[in-house]
Structure formats: structure tokens, C-alpha cells
Amino acid sequence: MPRLLSHAEADVVAGLYAQEAGFRSRVVMARHGFGRGEYRYFSYPLPDLIQSLRTAAYRRLAPIANRWHERMGKEARFPGDHAAFLERCHQAGQSRPTPLLLEYGPGDYNCLHRDLYGEHVFPLQIAILLDEPGEDFTGGEFVMTEQRPRMQTRPMVLPLRKGDAAVFAVNGRPMKGVRGDYQVKLNHGVSQLLSGKRHTLGVIFHDAA
């Protein structure tokens, strides 16, 4: 999704990382074997721009999520309103907000992973690049891998510019085969940063336990 955020909006969001208020936790990736770099989870209430983006994007993505679950034979269906889905998460003990802001410096990277935080998982998420490749940083490509049954893993690199968003599968997605639909698993991460600083906004629609 090109230019989901303007450059000015991207700068505002990236600038939040240096603030102490507004976050519930900070994770240094090297301490947990996640890679290098760090990220911070926002606390409730979310900043207005992020709250508005999360609510509006969910409404557009919920119909896709429901079609995916139908094709993959999953029972769960998602309401059209994000607040209703969050209420389901909170009733199951998933009440911690999951939108996060990531910061990378030279040599930093993010290992391939999936953002699963509990029983209730919305199958799509968004990552928005907040800095300009080639100007603010080099390296640091957004990487995905697709694990297909009985086949070798397929790598994908998605070129993003400042303000661009990637909408991608949290865990699995349906794929049409000669005998009908089957499920493929996806992981995502960031390749090693060579220079500069890179910030990313991650918008995840389920909350965490």
C-alpha cells in the first residue's frame, strides 16, 4: 500500500520512539535471540493516528480475514467492528495492546518470526516503513518466507519506501492448488541494516495475553 502515511506523518510516528510516555514495554531483541535492535509496545490509549489507522484498516481487512478462514476450514469469524473483536480478545485474557514501534541501527536485523500472542489471532497485520531507504538507511529490507507443504521454502523481499505499508499474513494464508485450497505458512523479518537508522510501525489487530 504505497504512501499509506505521508512523510510528515511518518516523521511524527518515528519521533515517538524517543519519548518515555505512551509505551508499556521495551524489548531489546538480542536479549531474547530475536535479532538485533529494539522495539517498544504502545500502551492504551494509542496515539490518535495509530488508533484511527488500526480501526479503519480492520474494517477493510475483516472481510478478507473471514474469506481466508472459510477457505482454510477454520471456524473463527471476525466481526466487522474492531472494538467487538478486541472485546473477544479481552474476555480471553488478551488485553495488552500490540501495536509497536521498531528501531534499527547499523548491524541490526530482525529474525524471521510470527506475531502470535494468544488464542485469538487476526490473520493479517500491517508494517509501515517510516524512513527513506538510500537516504536515511541502507540495507534493512523487509523479508518474508513462505513455507509450502512438501516444497522448499520460498523467500520474498518487498521493496518499501517511506510511508509505504505492507499488509501480510500473521501466520498462514490460503493458496489455490489443483485439488482445492491449502494453507501456507509465512514468516517475516528484516535483513541486516548496513548504515543509518530504520523505524517501522507494526499494526497488529489482536491484543496479547
Mind telling me the C-alpha Rg?
17 Å
Mean pLDDT: 96
Q: Number of helical segments? A: 4
| First-last Cα distance | 30 Å
* Major β-sheet annotation: 6 strands, antiparallel
The structure class reads: alpha+beta
Task: Quickly list its features.
4 helices, 6-stranded antiparallel beta sheet
Quick structural overview:
With 209 residues, the chain is an alpha+beta fold. It has helices spanning 7-15, 29-32, 48-71, 82-91, and strands at 23-28, 35-36, 38-42, 100-104, 109-113, 124-129, 137-139, 142-147, 154-158, 165-169, 172-177, 180-190, 193-196, 198-204.
Description:
The chain has 209 residues and is α+β, with helices and mostly antiparallel strands. Helices cover 22% and strands 36% of the residues. The chain contains four helices and 14 strands. The strands form three sheets. It has a six-stranded antiparallel sheet with strand order 1-3-4-14-6-10. Strands 2, 5, 8, 9, 11 and 12 form a six-stranded antiparallel sheet that branches. Strand 11 (172-177) and strand 12 (180-190) form a beta hairpin. The longest helix is centred in the N-terminal third of the chain and has 24 residues, at 48-71. 30% of the residues are buried. The model has no long low-confidence stretch (mean pLDDT 96).
Write the layout of secondary structure elements.
Elements: H1 7-15, E1 23-28, H2 29-32, E2 35-36, E3 38-42, H3 48-71, H4 82-91, E4 100-104, E5 109-113, E6 124-129, E7 137-139, E8 142-147, E9 154-158, E10 165-169, E11 172-177, E12 180-190, E13 193-196, E14 198-204
Antiparallel strand pairs: 1-3, 2-5, 3-4, 4-14, 5-12, 6-10, 6-14, 7-13, 8-9, 8-12, 11-12
